[in-house]
Design a protein that fits this description.
Order of helices and strands: EHEHEHEHEE
Strand order of the largest sheet: 3-2-1-4-6-5
Number of strands: 6
Helix content: 25-40%
Distance between the termini: 19 Å
CATH superfamily: Spore Coat Polysaccharide Biosynthesis Protein SpsA, Chain A
CATH architecture: Alpha-Beta Complex
Number of helices: 4
Low-confidence stretches: 117-126
Radius of gyration: 14 Å
Shape: globular
Strand content: 15-25%
Amino acid sequence: MGQAMKLALVSMIRDEADILPAFLEHASELFDMGFLLDHRSSDGSQKIMDDFCSGFSGWSYFKLDFPGRHQRDMSNIFMRRAFDAGVDAVIFLGDGNETLARKVALCTFLVPWVASMDVLCSIGTFSIIGHS
């Protein structure tokens, strides 16, 4: 059997402090590295993400403190960082209307499935990009 695929998570988060610890615990078990992008949270999410990332190698927290919708630009920046770090695939979880609970469920479904693909896939605000 071949070497396990190395996966990165890029997730945009806003005001999810109540369920963020469970999401981060679950995500840390599924992904080798992660980029947590906080988009102007005001409920304590920033501290939760910052504390989490300081305890996990390969995980980074970024505060996006500007108005507007810049998902495409942010996704491109962090996709490049992930591939430069040597991952095989990046899963993007956008900050649309979905909740972190839905993100956790989707991650559980997508991570095993991603190992068999090498193309871009988008499902609503979720995208997977494989590095070939």
